[in-house]
Amino acid sequence: MTLLTVKDLSKSYKRGRPVFSNISFDLHKGECLALVGESGSGKSTLARCLLRIEATDHGSIFLNGKAIEKLSERQLKPYRKKIQAVFQNPMASLNPKLKIKDSLIDPYMQYKSELRLAHFSYTSKDAYVKQLLEAVELPVFLADRYPHELSGGQRQRVTIARAISIEPELVLLDEPTASLDVISQNAVLQLLTELRQNLNLSYLFISHDLAAVNQMSQRTMVMKDGQIVDQFEQQHLFADERHPYTKELVSIF
Fold first, then answer.
1. How far apart are CA 233 and CA 221, in angstroms?
2. Helix or strand or coil: residue 168?
3. Is 56 among the domain residues?
4. How far apart are CA 116 and CA 136, in angstroms?
5. Could you give the residue ranges of the DSSP H alpha helices within the chain?
6. How many domains does the chain have?
7. pTM of this structure
8. If DSSP codes are grouped into helix, strand and coil, which group holds residue 152?
9. Smallest Cα–Cα separation from 31: which of 164, 186, 125, 171?
10. Distances from the Cα of 34 to the Cαs of 14, 41, 126, 139, 223, in angstroms?
C-alpha cells in the first residue's frame, strides 16, 4: 500500500537556478526507500520540501492519498505528527538548554490530544521517557543529562527516540549516521532496521553511503544534478541496465 506519492515536484532558488525538477516516486508502507547521490544533488532540499519546511515551485505531495503541498500551517498539523525526521547533526536537532527527558516529551505535548499510541503508553512523564530510551537502547539515567553530556552516538539515538515518540508513519532519515564513527554507524543502522519492523514505520533514507543503503533499504533511487536518474529494487543494484552514474557509485562501493 502506498504511503507517500510525489509527482513532478520541482524546486528552484533565486535567479531560477533549479535544485531539483520533475521528481516523481512512491513510497510504500513499511518499506525503507533509499535516496542516494553526491553532495549538492538536491537530496536534503527534497527532504525539507517533503517536510514542508521549504516551499516547492510546482508538483504534488500526497500522504495517504491527501495532497499536502498547499495546506496552510493550521491544516498541516494533523499531518505533521505523521512525518518526523532525523538529521545528520543531532546537536542541531536538540535544544542544548533542555534535559534529554524534556526534549523527548516535547512532541507528545504538542500532539497529545490527537495521539492514539499503539506501542508506547503515557502513564507518567518518567515512564514514557523510560520506554523511549529503552527503545533506542540507551540507559534511563541519561534522561537527566543535557545533550553536551552525551556522546555523538547517544545524541543521535535520542533524536531517533524523539522522532518515533509519537509513532509517525514516515521518518525521513537525512544522512543519520554521517557524523558517527564506523562502530556507532553500524549499531544505529541496525537499530533503525529493528524499529522499522517493530513499530511498522516507513523510511525515506537519504545517504551517499551505498553500504548503508544496501543494509537498510528495499528499493533505491539515484539522484544526480537534481534529477532521479535511476530507481530499482535492492537486489538489482548490480544489474546491467543500471544507469551509468549508478554504476559509477557501485564501482567505489
1. 9
2. coil
3. no
4. 21
5. 43-50, 73-80, 90-93, 100-111, 125-135, 152-164, 182-199, 210-216, 244-251
6. 1
7. 0.93
8. helix
9. 171
10. 29, 14, 35, 30, 10
Tens-digit pLDDT profile for the chain (253 aa)? 999 999 999 999 877 778 999 999 999 999 999 999 888 788 999 999 999 999 899 999 999 999 999 899 889 988 999 999 999 888 888 999 999 999 999 999 999 878 888 999 999 999 999 999 999 999 999 999 999 999 999 999 999 999 999 999 999 999 998 888 888 889 999 999 999 999 999 999 999 888 889 889 999 999 999 999 999 999 998 899 999 999 988 887 6
| Assigned C-alpha cell, 70 | 498547499
Q: What is the Cα–Cα distance from 253 to 248, expressed in whole angstroms? A: 9
Q: Which domain holds residue 127?
A: 83-167
Q: Of 215, 219, 213, which Cα lies nearest the Cα of 249?
A: 213
Q: Is residue 125 part of a domain?
A: yes
Q: What is the CATH number of the domain that holds 89?
A: 3.40.50.300
Let me know if residue 134 belongs to a domain.
yes
Q: In what order do the strands lie in the sheet with 18-28?
A: 18-28, 2-12, 58-63, 66-67
Does residue 68 belong to any structural domain of this protein?
no
Terminal CA-to-CA distance of the chain, rounded, Å?
31
